[in-house]
Write a structure and sequence with these properties.
It comes from Cyprinus carpio carpio. It holds the Pfam family Alpha_adaptinC2. It is found in: Cytoplasmic vesicle membrane; Golgi apparatus. By secondary structure, this protein is of the alpha+beta class. Helix content is about 55%, strand content about 10%. The protein has 33 helices and 11 strands. The strands form 3 sheets. A 6-stranded mixed sheet has the order 3-8-9-6-5-4. A 3-stranded antiparallel sheet has the order 7-10-11, covered by helices on one side. It has a two-stranded antiparallel sheet with strand order 1-2. A hairpin with a 2-residue loop joins strand 10 and strand 11.
């Protein structure tokens, strides 16, 4: 059989291939020849064939059929064979193949070989692909080589020990005695690998970290080595761009960072050397910047002196002026991490950070934007907002949503005046209105409502903005709401902050009607506009025109718009005496907890004149989503939705009129439900219908015994029962939640679900905090309609925060007293 071609010739031949198919053909032909040679047990050219196979493997072609040949080469006595065999093992084998276990004996023999280079090959292979079984079997040999005086073997043994510790962490203590003398070695290769080994041991074991801090006095040794590196003269063997062994310096700084974190003594011992590194390292080359960056990270992580931290932040500030984009990005990222702890020091570089907003690189822009928002405070809010608004005007669409959100939050927190706050948010809406968050509209409406003295100025500004551009939907929605609320101020020209404009009632109505027919308007915006027109019926004299507009949309194809128009028409006709009270100006709104004791409705401009439309009340809409989550958890189709409402706070007479109005208009859009049992189960009736003047509970409630529905982790939920007078099919259950632990349970939410044959309604809870030590309770009323008098079953979901940790639990309640459902 002719001798196979050499590796060099194969490479040359493959490189002459003009197409992928031609190259594939050459590879397949050579692979066939190699397979034939392997079958004939050709020992002469096995090394050459495996080398060619490894080259094909590097090109991405399959070479798994050469695995056993690698083992044969490892078992050979020739060094050249062993070298190719071990290289093949590292490339072709891993611990997922059982073949690698056959190597264990060969590696063990080679670790005890008389030639250091053979021992080095075995250490490299074990450190590269050794499995946990191999590491357990060979850890003793590695530990023995770690103690040898041969620096060539010690550095390889140290890296192999790192791999062993990663695979079998419990063998870590075996290498502890060998680490004592590693740092006294003068060879930089041994020092480098020793620091890597010590870093691995400290990261993986807190006990090892404590041992090296106190018993081994590791920090002084590392400080000594680092000081020698800084003070040493030129050494051609270790010099990189004028800096002595930067790789070793970086490794030592990382280990110092681990040792000094959270430890006062260790941090104190390394403060001086860190200051020396920070001041003596050359910054003209990238090598010096790498060392300075590691120094900064170490200073920030340990308990360093304040002056040293300022020095570190100044280094990052110099990085921001570097031409290298990577260095600028690293500096911005590091400053973002430290801005909360060293705010004043970072503030000194504010102008440089703001300049980074103009960078062409999008990653640098994003980091600069995030850092700019972190630097905003009450002193610089005007200047920073000016820069950020300019950035919002010119930035890419990808940035606008985050930038607008950040401006809203910063303005809300640090606004120097309400007028400035309103102007800033309006500027955002006019430039990036389509990108703002969903909650920006109700938040701005609340801000405007609470700024009583700014109403005339705001409505005038918004009206002008509406004339210029109606494409920004959030802006249009806020403007519509304000015109509906304060349209009389707009027409009367009472603005004192700027020159008032002369606007007639018809011009205002023309603008709002234009929004209703505009193709740019979304269904939500049209709802705002129709509601605004309806509000103006009590503020303007053009009543006939408003009635005409409202009646037209009573047959709108949009169901939401149609329902609003029908309800508004009912106000004009049957309930015209209530219209002024219903459409009066909104009171000042306050933000409160969602399920707090006294819940204030935070309107988004749509619901103030549509008290009929209960789905716009936050106290209902938010628990609705929670109810859906609960139903998903409960599974199946045998549960009905939860109807949750707030307790009416109006006087009794007004409440009675409103409830009569609700019953007449029918929230479900169908005929008015009379008896509860006749309503289809797919559309549950409003359980408060008909309860306008009668007492809720009768006198026989005391005969139903209370029960404990839930008792776990210190939280007890008790049910007490009463019967509803107007409808004996309705059971009124009051829950009492108490907390016997030593800490309050906050953000408490109780939810419930019942089978389809029942209907359930949750009223608002008395609080969302269950006090500790049973010092109080949270109460909540549940109303259950049971027309078929079936046994009551209920699943409950409890969500709360206890000692900073969120808790969520599900339970099933089936032991209701018979009197509660019979």
């Amino acid at each position: 059989m002719p001798a196979p071609i050499r590796l060099r010739e194969l490479i040359r031949t493959i490189r002459t291939a003009r197409t992928q198919a031609e190259e594939r053909e050459m590879i397949q032909k050579e692979c066939a020849a190699i397979r034939s040679s392997f079958r004939e047990e050709d020992n002469t050219y096995r090394c050459r064939n495996v080398a060619k196979l490894l080259y094909m493997h590097m090109l991405g072609y399959p070479a798994h059929f050469g695995q056993l040949e690698c083992l044969k080469l490892i078992a050979s006595q020739k060094f050249t064979d062993k070298r190719i065999g071990y290289l093949g093992a590292m490339l072709l084998l891993d611990e997922r193949q059982d073949v690698h276990l056959l190597m264990t004996n060969c590696i063990k023999n080679d670790l005890n070989h008389s030639t250091q280079y053979v021992q080095g090959l075995a250490l490299c292979t074990l450190g590269c692909m050794g499995s946990s079984e191999m590491c357990r079997d060979l850890a003793g040999e590695v530990e023995k080589l770690l103690k040898t005086s041969n620096s060539y073997l010690r550095k390889k043994a140290a890296l192999c020990a790192v791999h062993v510790i990663r695979k079998v962490p419990e063998l870590m203590e075996m290498f502890l005695p060998a680490t004592k003398n590693l740092l006294s070695e003068k060879n930089h290769g041994v020092l480098h690998t020793s620091v890597v080994l010590l870093t691995e041991m400290c990261e993986r074991s807190p006990d090892m970290l404590s041992h090296f801090r106190k018993n081994e006095k590791l920090v002084p040794q590392l400080v000594r080595i680092l000081k020698n590196l800084i003070m040493s003269g030129y050494s051609p063997e270790h010099d990189v761009s004028g800096i002595s062994d930067p790789f070793l310096q970086v490794r030592i700084l990382r280990l110092l960072r681990i040792l000094g974190k959270g430890d006062d003594d260790s941090s104190e011992a390394m403060n001086d050397i860190l200051a020396q590194v920070a001041t003596n390292t050359e910054t003209s080359k990238n090598v010096g910047n790498a060392i300075l960056y590691e120094t900064v990270l170490t200073i920030m992580d340990i308990k360093s002196e304040s002056g040293l931290r300022v020095l570190a932040i100044n280094i990052l500030g110099r990085f921001l002026l570097n031409n290298d984009k990577n260095i600028r990005y690293v500096a911005l990222t590091s400053l973002l991490k430290t801005v909360q702890t060293d705010h004043n020091a970072v503030q000194r570089h504010r102008s440089t950070i703001v300049d980074c907003l103009k960078d062409l690189d999008v990653s640098i822009k994003r980091r600069a934007m995030e850092l700019s928002f972190a630097l905003v405070n009450g002193n610089n809010i005007r200047g920073m907002m000016k820069e950020l608004l300019y950035f919002l005007d010119s930035c890419d669409p990808d940035f606008k949503a985050d930038c607008a959100s950040g401006i809203f939050l910063a303005a809300e927190k640090y606004a120097p005046s309400k007028r400035w706050h309103i102007d800033t948010i309006m500027r955002v809406l006019t430039t990036a209105g389509s990108y703002v968050r969903d909650d920006s509209v109700p938040n701005l409406i609340q801000l405007i409502t609470n700024s009583v003295e700014m109403h005339a100025y705001t409505v005038q500004r918004l009206y002008k903005a509406l004339l210029d551009d109606i494409s920004q939907q959030p802006l249009v929605q806020v403007a519509s709401w304000c015109i509906g609320e304060y349209g009389d101020l707009l027409v009367s020209g009472q603005c004192e902050e700027e020159e008032p404009i002369q606007v007639s009632e018809d011009e205002v109505l023309d603008v709002l009607e234009g929004l209703l027919v505009s193709n740019l308007s979304t269904p939500v915006t049209r709802g705002y506009s129709l509601t605004a027109i309806m509000k103006l019926s009590t503020r303007f004299s053009s009543l006939n025109r408003i009635k005409k507009v409202v009646s037209i949309y009573g047959s709108s194809i949009d169901v939401e718009l149609q329902q609003r128009a029908v309800e508004y028409n009912a106000l004009f006709k049957k309930y015209d005496h209530m219209r002024p009270a219903l459409l009066e100006r909104m009171p000042i709104m306050e933000k409160t907890a969602t399920n707090g004791p006294s819940e204030t409705v935070q309107t988004n401009g749509e619901t103030d004149s549509t008290i009929l439309d209960t789905k716009h009340l936050p106290s209902i809409s938010q628990p609705a989503s929670q109810a859906n989550d609960l139903l998903d958890l409960l599974g199946g189709n045998d549960v009905v939705p939860i109807i949750q409402t707030t307790v009416p706070t109006k006087p009794a007479s007004a409440g009675g009129e409103l409830l009569d109005l609700l019953g007449d208009l029918s929230l479900t859009g169908g005929p008015t439900p009379t008896p509860a049992s006749s309503v289809p189960m797919s559309q549950p009736p409003f359980l408060l219908d008909g309860l306008t003047s009668q007492p809720l509970f009768n006198d026989i409630a005391a005969v139903i015994p209370p029960m404990t529905a839930y008792n776990k982790n210190g939280l007890i939920i008790e049910f007490t029962f009463e019967r509803s007078n107007p409808n004996p099919n309705i059971a009124v259950i009051t829950i009492h939640a108490t907390n016997s632990t030593e800490a309050d349970m906050t953000e408490f939410v109780f939810q419930a679900a019942v089978p389809k044959t029942f209907q359930l309604q949750l009223l608002s809870p008395s609080s969302n905090v269950v006090p500790a030590f049973n010092q109080g309770s949270v109460t909540q009323v549940i109303r259950v309609l049971n027309p078929q008098k079936q046994q009551l079953r209920m699943r409950i979901k409890l969500t709360y925060t206890h000692k900073g940790s969120p808790v969520q639990d599900l339970a099933e309640v089936n032991n209701f007293p018979p009197q509660s459902w019979q």
